Amino acid sequence: MTAPHRVPRAMRSRVPLIGSAIHLRRDPLGFVQEIRRSGDVATFKLGPRTVYVVNHPELIRQMLVTEADKFHKGVMFEKARILARNGLFTSEGDFHTRQRRLIQPAVRASEIAGYTRTMREQVDELVTAWADGDVVRMDQATFPLALGIVTRVLFSTDLDPATAAEVHETLPVLLRGLGQRALAPFDFLDRLPTPTNRAFDRALPRFRSVIHRLIREHRLDLGQHPDLLTSLLQAADPDTGETMSDEQVYDEVTSMIIAGSETTSAAMAWAAYLLATHPDVQRAVQAEVDEVLQGRPVRYEDLGRLQFTHRVVKETLRLYPTTWMLMRRPLEDVDLGGYRIPADAMVLFSIFALHRDPALFPDPERFDPDRWLPDRARTMPPHAYLPFGAGPRGCIGGAFSHTEAAVFLATLAQRHTLVSVSDEPVRIVTTLIPMPGPISLGVRSRAGSRSPEAVIR
Ligand code: HEM
Prior knowledge:
By secondary structure, the protein is of the alpha+beta class. It has a domain at 1-85 and 324-386: CATH 1.10.630.10. Helix content is 49%, strand content 11%. A hairpin with a 2-residue loop joins β7 (334-336) and β8. It is globular and about 65 Å long. It starts with 8 loop residues before the first strand and ends in a 12-residue tail after the last strand. 43% of the residues are buried. The structure holds protoporphyrin IX containing FE. Residues 73, 88-89, 100, 150, 255-256, 259-260, 263-264, 267, 322-323, 326, 387-389, 393-397, 400-401 line the site of protoporphyrin IX containing FE.
């Protein structure tokens, strides 16, 4: 006889009917940490729906890796289809597997080596514009940087100012709209003429038309641009030789822009904030960068020697993993750790809550890059660290964004020291991504740290 299933502890909602929607919207990070304490699997009500929350790293791994084929990505991603349609981020099944095989080569390490120069040039342009004594709003500076990098890597040519402005203006509106829709307790809320919905509806056709135009232009002189979009247009299925239609390329490009801009921007802003508030760590990054680079611009080959800088990036993504919750939808009834989760249930897991679980990370709120020293990292429970997810739906841009953040820190550390200008801790603003609230940081130039003749253009 099989053992009876365990009953997950239910979190009581404070407002009947709406369930925990208000709590979740007001304080999502507090909410996911509170529910983490309710057990390996817990439930709460979101409107009429029962949401299952999976809190144990082994059970999360079961969903993402060992039993990934029993799950689809769920309502959050279904709603993202309005923007990313059937791209890698949102597609499912055999189609997703085929697309992933086609796209993966364009973001492997050997390609990223080529993108590093673009990353460095973009970072350089930003940080050389900062002068000694400036106060920089880091949360506002890193989004255009990350978007500039991902669009440059995709489209190689400089976007003309009008095109760049279209993308820069519309994308944040679209991302904000998706964030709200993912957790709306009722679907009809997506269609109400609220300011967020109306702004979303206006931004979407503008964004689409820009991306379609860029694809058409690339198709016309295919092969002339050594960039990621060309790799996508040329990628052919090894079995059938089939390539992607312009519509499919649109979906993939959009998926990469959505998945790769705000995430990496938040990671860089948090890293800068953590350096400014931990001067000893900042000094150690500067010492490493000075020793390895000897004043010249960072190259891909240098990154392997910037071990401490890497640990800073890793630890930043532990504390601020840029996805505070993700979803899955089981295709059939599944057993997770003795709990039965019914087919089609809404299942949620929080990488943010996982990364701050004291049972997994000692002193979890402490920013401690050296917890990633090999000897200490070995003692960490397996699968506890998942900033990029795992398994067949794990992030395709993990190496890309890790490289980008390391290039950002190395280039910044060569030129400037960042200092806090306020004792107020930075607020975490959460839509889909835990974004830093206003971060104002002071810039102190490290004059003479880099000789002008060493600048490679
Ligand atoms: C710090 C930066 C980033 C973080 C923390 C991050 C995190 C993640 C996570 C957690 C997932 C898995 C979602 C799930 O399992 O439901 C994911 C998927 C994905 N990411 Fe990233 N990402 C980052 C940057 C990027 C970049 C730069 C790109 C593209 C250039 C990218 C493209 C994608 C795509 C296409 C997927 C979907 C993969 C699939 O389902 O096959 N990401 N990302």
